[in-house]
Amino acid sequence: MRFFLYFIVLIMLLSLVSGIGISPGRYEVDFSPWLEQEFSFVIINNEGQDYTVGIGVGGDLAEHVTLSDQEVFVKGGSMAPFTARLELPAAIETPGRHVISFYVMEKSEESSGGIGARVGVIPQIYVHVPYPGKYAEISSFIIADDKGGVNEGEDTPGSFSIRSRGEEAITGARAEVSYYSLANGGLLETVTYDDLTIPPISTITKTFTFTTAGSPPSDYRAVLRFFYGDEERNATKGFRVGSFDVELVEYQEVVERDGIVPFAAKVRNLWKGRIAADATLRVPGLEPATSARVGLVDFQQRELTVYLDTSSLPLGKNNGSLVIRAEKQVKGADNNEVAKEYPVTFTLVEAIVEVEERPGFLTGSSVLHVLLVILILLLAASVYFLVRVLKEKK
What we know:
By secondary structure, the protein is mainly beta. The protein has helices spanning 2-14, 364-393, and strands spanning 20-23, 26-30, 36-45, 51-58, 65-67, 71-74, 79-87, 96-108, 119-129, 136-143, 149-151, 156-164, 170-181, 187-198, 203-210, 218-228, 231-242, 246-251, 254-257, 260-269, 275-282, 289-290, 294-296, 301-309, 316-328, 337-350. A hairpin with a 5-residue loop joins β13 (170-181) and β14 (187-198).
């Protein structure tokens, strides 16, 4: 019956949302024979309710982990620590990354003895077992400090790190980092590093600068390629050379006629810097409607909401325009305002009337949910008994 019970628990857990957080999110360690190391975690209770939290461990190396506590009490809005002690064997046959995952289950102190309520997967420990021979990974590839790009007239800094995860040193390797125009795919610049050497279980880091000071405002793509022996590793990052500008990314194309309704539009800040933006929707025959003003940081996208009065609009296609305005949030900045107008077309449809569900009665949707749950349980039971019959025949 265990299979059946596990299946039921799995269905329950998949529908739960955790109010518990854990820090840090991940540890990484390189394998060495008989390694013993302790890792500290903090459980964070983001809710106002007290919980007793059960802790479990999963993964192919779980048997080598000892927890300081199987259960931890965490007061609402507070934190509680626990530790995990890792004791590795003399050897692990399978090379590569082995993941140890931690799981928590919350039990409400205010509940009347039932199993609490929520489950969550929490941080992991990565144990890297060396590969035979030579083996490399790109461990980081950063463009413009991961800020999304630079502004026009500026060069673009970057860096990359290559990690050797093999038992042998990597020698005579080569790295190329290039950037391309997204508009036409043309190669604009390549920086090359020759005759690179990386000792076993070590990392090298290189920095570079793309000369984008003369490049026009646009989106670009950076590509890193690392060659060693007959092997190649690569990574890609997008970035932008920005200017003070905004653009309409997308807007709501179907609107329900139901009096005053929200109309959503997503805009993008094309500048490395803070701006404040709003949108005004203009539809013939209606008064212009303007969204609240929101802030956007470097190259950020955000949704603006305009409230549109649909009472007098005809069903079907409606045309209008959307004016996006932005203002620099920098004191003393020149040219600190910009506005762009975009044509928009949306389809107005009749609102979908929802039938109110009466408490105490099964509606069509709730009956469907009940039938679905019954079907899943029957399927699980069938699989369990089939497995049991096959085992008995053996």
